[in-house]
Amino acid sequence: ATEQDSILISAQQFAEECGIKVNSAYKQIELASKKLVDRSFSYTNEKGKKVYSNWVIDATYEDAGVNLRFTAVVLMMLKILDKYNPYTRYKKDVVLKLKKDYSIDFYHLAKKSEKLGSFELTIDSMFIEFGLPESYRDLRNLKRRVLKDPIDEINKYTDIDLTYEPIKKGRSVVGFKFTVREKTKHKTITVQGRDPNTVDMFFEMSDSQINMFGNQLSKLPELGKYAVGNEGYEALASRLKDMLKDPEKQKLLVPHLKKLGFNPKSS
């Protein structure tokens, strides 16, 4: 792709991925594209010089969605990052839960620094990297809108815990240090007097496993009870796939999964 090529963000596809209505999807991608047009970032080039760049050139609103044209430097970086940087690949179901402004920005930085255990940002660098409005120079606004809300959301929905503490120069706060910790994996819990075959563990399943086993489960007569009204196998399969992603509801399906050959140790 080049700067002359536009990339269509389809409202229909966006709606299907996010599980929302098409009208809502169009409004959301329109809002997101406006923000993206206004956002910029900085990097150091091969000569050691700091360069500021926009993410996109323009956004054109079509009936089917929004066409975006990315700058040449962004296209080049995306190509390089996609090939060599594992931190650009996140689980879709995790990222889609991050709704607050700056949540994805912080999640990306945290995942990038996860092995190091921490990273630091000065307040000035946050304004540049995140494109913050001047009203956030007020430290109370900055902490509430840029730090607390996004980090609370990350800690609630993702695979990491993120905390922060101020970095001071004298009595003034000049930045923040962020500590990243991977969340503890789910463990099997044994309760005295309880059936040892009862499942207390949530098994992480790949998208392909969820799709395959969801379709197979929908054909089992004993799971017809989860169907709503006269819905067919396809609708039931979709419902069961959602259950496989839910830690509590998945427990109800594990015995049936094992009958179909699901091996938790290989997932």
Automatic annotation (TrEMBL):
Sorted alphabetically, the Gene Ontology BP terms of this entry are:
DNA replication initiation
Q: Which domain of life is it from?
A: Bacteria
Query: Which Pfam family is one of this chain's hits?
Result: Rep3_N
> Which N-terminal residues, if any, form the signal peptide?
none
Per UniProt, residues of the Initiator Rep protein WH1 domain are 4-111
Q: Name one GO molecular function term.
A: DNA-directed DNA polymerase activity
Q: Which InterPro entries match?
A: Initiator_Rep_WH1, WH-like_DNA-bd_sf, WH_DNA-bd_sf
**Family from the record:** Belongs to the initiator RepB protein family.
Q: What is this protein called?
A: Replication initiation protein
Organism, by scientific name, is Acinetobacter rudis
